[in-house]
Amino acid sequence: MSVLKLYEYPDEVLRQKCVRVSKVDDELRRFLDDMLETMYVDKGCGLAAPQVGITKRIIVLDPNPSDEDLSLRRPMYLVNPEIIWKSEETVLFNEGCLSLPDQRAEVERYEKVRVRYIDYNGQEQEILADDLLAIILQHEIDHLDGILYIDHLSRLKRTRLLHKLAKFREGKAEKKE
Ligand code: NI
After folding, report:
1. Catalytically annotated residue among 95, 140, 170, 174
2. In angstroms, how far is CA 133 from the centroid of its own chain?
3. What is the spatial distance between Cα 21 and Cα 114, in angstroms, rounded to a whole number?
4. DSSP state, 19?
5. Is 140 a catalytic residue?
6. What's the gap in Å between 24 CA and the centre of ligand 1?
7. I need a labelling partner for 15 at 20 to 30 A (CA). Which of 8, 29, 52, 54 fits?
8. What is the mean pLDDT of residues 64-76?
9. Region for residue 106 given its phi and psi (left: phi exceeds 0; alpha: psi -120 to 50; beta: otherwise)
10. Which helix or strand (DSSP H or E) is residue 173 part of?
11. pLDDT tens-digit profile of 71-124?
12. What is the pTM of this model?
């Protein structure tokens, strides 16, 4: 397995509408493994293919990406995921994204979603998700349509967050010098 390069805001690849995958074969499974490895190394709980520069409808996630106890890990691979039902109730959740490092903001999401997808073995699956899993699914599926969580914020909140991101990057650049 190898760790893939992560693309960050404002890279254009994050704004592309991703294309459906036609078949799950060994080559795709290798990519799924690499995506998961990348997600764990970067300490995320979800990763979408455009974040590693590939504009295909693929996400990986793990609501509990534990480093201490690997047996607690529950990785999921979703190819062509689609939200086929959503609850009327919504919840606010403080989200972050590996493509906007060190930032978080509250986003309104559906409390529950039902998602149809193709799994690691090429089988069609459906899952009814709530809690953190429902949030991650909505966040990652958004990525496949070029949508970032900051797009759900008010203009003022988004501007503030992007300002903080710029500051964070300046700080990191200074440390390197
Ligand atoms: Ni994200």
Report:
1. 140
2. 11
3. 20
4. B
5. yes
6. 23
7. 29
8. 89
9. beta
10. helix 155-176
11. 899 999 999 999 999 999 999 999 999 999 999 999 999 999 999 999 999 999
12. 0.96
CA atoms within 13 A on the CB side of 125: 16
3-state DSSP assignment of residue 53: coil
- Distance from residue 41's CA to the centre of ligand 1 (Å): 15
Distance 97 CA to ligand 1 centre (A): 4
Ordered by where they begin, the domains of the chain are 12-176 (3.90.45.10)
Q: Ligand 1 centroid to 109 CA: how many Å?
A: 14
Encoded amino acid at 34, one letter: D
- Are 29 and 63 within 8 A, CB to CB? no
Residues ≥6 apart with Cβ < 8 Å to 37: 1, 2, 3
* DSSP 8-class letter at 102: T
Strand 76-86 versus strand 90-95 pairing type? unpaired
Whole-number pLDDT of residue 36: 97
Beta bridge partners of residue 117, listed in sequence order: 125
> Residues in the chain, how many?
177
Distance 56 CA to ligand 1 centre (A): 15
Kindly give the distance from the C-alpha atom of residue 14 to the centroid of ligand 1, in angstroms, as a whole number. 9
- pLDDT at residue 176, rounded to an integer: 75
Q: Give the DSSP letter of residue 125.
A: E
